[in-house]
Amino acid sequence: MFTGDELTAALETLGVTHVVWLPDSALGVWEAALEAAPHLTLVRVCRESEAWAIAAGLHIGGKSPLVMIQNTGLFDSGDALRNVLFDLGIPLYAMIGYRSYLVENSPDTAKKFTEPVLKAWGIDYLLIDRPGRVEAFCDHYRACQAASRAGVTLIAEGNM
Amino acid sequence: MAAASNSNRIPLLAALEVVARTRRDEVVVTTMGSAREWPKLSQHPLDFHYLPSAMGQSPMIALGLALAMPERRVIAFTGDGSLLMNLGCLVTIAAAAPRNLAVIALNNGRYEVTGGQTTAGAVSKVEFSAIAAASGIARTHAFDTLDAWQQGWEAIRAVAGGSAFIELDVAPVGPDYHLVVPGPMRSRLAAFRAALSGA
Fold it and tell me: Nearest Cβ partner of A57 from B68, B88, B186?
């Protein structure tokens, strides 16, 4: 949906300091750009639940982290997300790969449950399902930050 | 270090007191059992009790704090049950390579706050310090006596830079295991943020 350069330029504009991530095959193509961006620190986690707590610590310490994971990792990290977004009340923003969204009639249950789970958590989200919508992501990020609420951009992907 | 019998373990409060005695302006992150005991020793504004139920996450929020504030030392207490839920965090810490983070694992072989049920790690005789070393954390330590821990902590504190992982063989507290959450997390977080900013 974005090139690595488009993404890192957007993150620089938004003031993002750290990307805390566990990539999938679609998000993973940004690795080189994220590593090379002088204004960003890439923090690699072993499991998605770690990403929320690390990002929370960064936020408390005055930084502006972005969580970047796949939707399967969203499912896995529910309790950490609950702690950070709802108990601590930290308005983190995440970019989440939406596995199988672009596959018509996909039987992938990761596709089936992604948006219902976000709605259940009450998380404001934006779906990016075609190229060239970097500005939409930036606008949504800014709106969420201005309102001090958590937010997600879903990046539509093909098959697993 | 494989866990010893309960009678030979370090009393938990004494283990924490070693850190409390030398603590200056370090951030101290606690959770679960350590969050119950640490306030008996410390009411410092840079104490952050990650509760009510953040098992496995205290080293991670501490890592975020350490990366955000490289000039400030961060100490994270975690229990063995919590650490077992997220062993990968040791690899994450090694990869992130903070220069100011100490993780202290309090190993009593129990899920203490739920009544003392045995962990799988106690059965398997897991060696957390060995796992930490194999994960890539350069400075790892294990102590099973209070004297050794007191001397060891002085030496660990004297080294500037790099992460440290410490495993302490501690005794379960017994019947007084209930964890009382010290007030709403958001208000505690606001106070902690204010302390960090020097307000």
Answer: B68
- Alpha-carbon gap, residue B62 to A66, rounded angstroms: 17
| More confident call, B30 vs B55 | B30
Cβ neighbourhood burial of B78 (10 Å; 0-12, 13-18, 19+) = buried
Q: Which of A43, A49, A62 sits opposite B96 (nearest CB)?
A: A43
Tell me which amino acid residue B143 is. F
Q: Does A54 touch chain B (CB under 8 A)?
A: yes
* CB-based contact B185 A88, cutoff 8 Å: yes
Rounded CA separation B4/A105 (Å):
56
What is the reported pLDDT for B54? 80
Residue A152's domain spans which residues? 4-106+115-156
- For residue B94, how many other CB atoms are within 10 A of its CB? 18
The amino acid sitting at A39 is H
Structural domains counted in chain A: 1
Residues of chain A where predicted confidence (pLDDT) is lower than 70: 159-160
A30-70 pLDDT, tens digit per residue, is: 999 999 999 999 999 999 999 999 999 999 999 999 999 99
Residue B1 within a domain: no
Is pLDDT of B199 > 80?
Answer: no
Assigned domain for B109 exists = yes
Q: How many CB atoms lie within 10 A of CB B181?
A: 13
ipTM of the complex: 0.96
